Amino acid sequence: MDGGDPLIALCDQDDIWHPDRLARGIAELDRSGAQLVHSDARLVGPDGTSVLQPSMFRFERRHRHPGLRGLLYRNTITGMTLLMRAEVMRLALPFPQQSGVHFYHDLWLGLIAAATGGVARIDAPLVDYRQHGTNAIGAVDRQKGWLRAGRRRRPDAMWLRREAASYALARYLAQSAHARISDALADGQLTPGRTTLTPLRPYLKRLRGTGSHLWDALRLGLTGHLGLARIAAGFAVVSVGRVSWALREALGPGLSAAIESFDTRLYSLSPGVPPARPRNAAEVATRPVPYATHTDIRKEPRWDPDFTADTPALTVLVPTLNPTEVFAGIVTALDIGLGLAARGHTVRFVATDLPVSSQPASRAFLLNRLPGDAPAGTAARISLACGVKSGTIPAHKGDVFLATAWWSAHVADRLIRRFRLEQSRFFYLIQDFEPNFYAWGPEYADALASYDLDFVPIFNTTLLRDHFQQQGFGFAGPDALTFRPAIDIARYAARPRTGRGPGPRRLAVYGRPEVARNMYATAIEALARFIETEKLAPGDIDLVSLGMSHPPVTLPRGLELRSLGKLPWEKYPAYLLGTDLGLSLMYSPHPSHPPLEMAAAGVRVVTNSFGPKDLGRLSPAILSAPATAPALAQALSRAWHLPAVDEADRKIDLAPLGPTLEATIDRLSRRLAPLTAGRAA
């Protein structure tokens, strides 16, 4: 290529370039003026020589010219065939954040290229794509079209969840691409007139876009792309559902009450009484309802074991197996199950609350969390099941359950009693005192009742075990299984502090308004008292909130708390290393991670005590105070006047909180072995 921007070609380590791959790509970029060019590929076997399919384009029925919006229905670009201008990579980096369900690098590069100059295609195969058993993605046979193998996706709740997940990813990428290109225009990296963002409009409007997806569905269907037409139609359905849900929430159940109230006033003017209702309307209002509508369905297993399994398994009951819905508590349960599978146990994960949207995505998410030294055959010992939609799940009379929340403890107990399983006790992963998540009532009582069942406890930290012991629970003895928080202290403590130079000191608040036990309102009140006591001004302190996004909060003396929301995982340590003070609350016997992470990063952090919990014993960098605004404000004042945290105080020893999770899994494995070994169906 004559002068100009350098070019970048991507490759996979086990695929084979044809000799003219680069030359033809360069020629097509010159001819078309596009930002990116990609080619067809031959599909070959693991040996690299046997041709399975002569054209991946034809095998996967790829649209020849999908356009910018079409890429979001189905990506047509294979990364190891593309050649792009370096400008595309500069605009594309850093990649948008991902969590759980991942999109692919070639799709993001294609979106950026399509929006800034276009994508060209070479129909000849210029690369041999090696198809084998361990491909991250692999080629997908779409030659038989939408009705391949006679299968038809029925539009039920599971179908809608899958479509919603696909639409969510498309909308996320469209908005991310729009933001990235807009920022590049504002920064002068791109000149006006070079960009094409109009096709993304259906994903950018708050309430519009359905019509564009319907038009795409019609156009694609008429041109023979039935699979793509189905995807576009699915996006239209989800878009309509999104708007309908938003309107329902906006109007809400209060709409009927408001109209009723207005009519009551209206009729009071004339004739003085409301009109009589039809008799059938009164009957509808008083029609009996089934008792089940008043019971908590989470406590009841929604499947039956079919006892077809050859050997017993540890059955791990978790609320969800969908990667985007997994939070820290579920991750711990998954890691325990995966660790036991790596130690030779058969492990079955069952989603009890939410349907599994995609078995392959959930399985890939689990296998990606396996330890790197997991022995061969570990993956084969792991299975997944949907306890919401599956009427039956493979089981064995010798199965052992691991409950991970109070309602799954009831599920385990009922399955054991109802089907007379051999193991009368189950393991119960206790990660907090769950009754306190609720006001006094049915959920409080049911959560408390779960501690009366027959189980072996596994406590998340000795602090939580000690709280149960103080409350008089006999199972919380000194020999109970416990483990410490899975915090990589060295990730924070081994890195040098960032000198911020002259200017205001930064105070970071762990702000999660929607989570009651994080005591957001108390934190705000404590901050206000602290500011007034120390007579702080904007030039003295910079107040930020990390955790959940929320509106800024005005505070005394012209100060404001601004919310940064949840920081990306890779940027979080660096931000803490430039932070001076922290305020992180958790009204629970379980120690939250942020105070420990902040202290390890050299932040002087204030947190609250709770029963036996006093994190100040772990490091002088942590100031533990009673969970009241005056006490926390006084602790903030002490922290404000203390010197910088010593390097020695950053090296926090978590051993007092329990053994490592790996050591506890070893103990659990030894206890589990005699329960499941040597049994046949």
UniProtKB/TrEMBL annotation:
Q: Name one GO molecular function term.
A: transferase activity
Q: Where is the WsaF N-terminal domain?
A: 314-461
Q: Which UniProt keywords apply?
A: Transferase
List the InterPro entries hit by this protein, alphabetically: Nucleotide-diphossugar_trans (IPR029044), WsaF_C (IPR055050), WsaF_N (IPR048510)
The UniProt entry, under Pfam families, shows: WsaF_C, WsaF_N
Q: Which SUPFAM superfamilies match?
A: Nucleotide-diphospho-sugar transferases, UDP-Glycosyltransferase/glycogen phosphorylase
User: WsaF C-terminal domain spans which residues?
Assistant: 505-636
UniProt name for this protein: Glycosyl transferase family 1
Native organism: Thalassococcus profundi
Lineage from the top down?
Bacteria, Pseudomonadati, Pseudomonadota, Alphaproteobacteria, Rhodobacterales
